[in-house]
Design goal:
The protein is of the alpha+beta class. It is built from six helices and twelve strands. The radius of gyration is 17 Å and the shape is globular.
Length: 231
């Protein structure tokens, strides 16, 4: 059997806050794209020959240059990141997820412990919740081997998605020395957990061509775009 083709909504939503982009996608009748699907979109957009990637095809109405422009502005990854003293829980956002919902850490821990561990990252049985422990991610400048094994990258995009993002991130550079970077959170002492979302962008300065920014969930100063998936 052939690989099932996935099709992105060819109309991007943005450039607005996370909550507005999310609402508009759902109001149009689409579902939110996952981190794995976003990684495939980016790889297909930056691949020299789209046909080489049979796992994913972009609709002809989407021009690669348009997606690259969105990367310059910022592209939301529809995950909720809950940063705790022990690590970060990454929960896939969905139609049924309330925008400001309380996350029960004990319940999240139970769910991921019932699943499997992939490269040090725990996945729930349905893969919708992941946990990367402290020490598995760094938020530093990377070499590709370290980037694709970073716990937060794997939790955000899945193992295969981390490979796709890694391969492309090291080709975003303006010159050979450009390197990807992530900006993450650290919870110290008795500080409460922080819930955030992620934005992928392509910067053209300070030798950081690929940047994954972690933004506070209710911070409307961070604007970006997003894609929906046909249900």
């Amino acid at each position: 059997m052939g690989v099932k083709e996935k099709t992105f909504n060819y109309i991007s939503v943005g450039r607005e806050s996370y909550r507005n982009v999310r609402s508009q996608i759902l109001d149009k009748g689409y579902r939110l794209s996952t981190g794995e699907e976003v990684s495939s979109l980016i790889q297909a957009a930056y691949s020299p020959e789209e046909g080489n990637y049979k796992f994913f095809k972009i609709r002809k109405r989407i021009e690669k240059s348009a997606i690259r422009n969105l990367m310059d502005e910022g592209l939301f990854v529809f995950n909720r990141n809950l940063w705790t003293r022990d690590g970060v829980y990454v929960i896939q956002d969905s139609d049924s997820t309330k925008r400001n919902y309380e996350l029960d850490i004990k319940n999240l821990e139970k769910v991921v412990n019932e699943g499997e561990k992939i490269d040090g990252v725990k996945f729930s049985k349905d893969k919708s919740i992941r946990f990367a422990p402290v020490g598995s991610y760094s938020g530093e400048n990377y070499r590709i081997e370290k980037f694709t094994k970073d716990g937060f990258i794997i939790a955000s995009f899945g193992k295969d998605g981390a490979e796709k993002i890694g391969n492309i991130a090291f080709n975003f550079g303006i010159n050979f020395n450009d390197i990807p970077r992530t900006y993450l959170r650290s919870i110290q002492g008795d500080a409460p957990p922080i819930q955030t979302v992620s934005i992928i962008t392509r910067k053209k300065y300070r030798k950081q061509a690929f940047v994954l920014i972690d933004a506070l969930l209710d911070d409307d100063s961070y604007h970006g775009s997003g894609f929906g998936m046909y249900k």
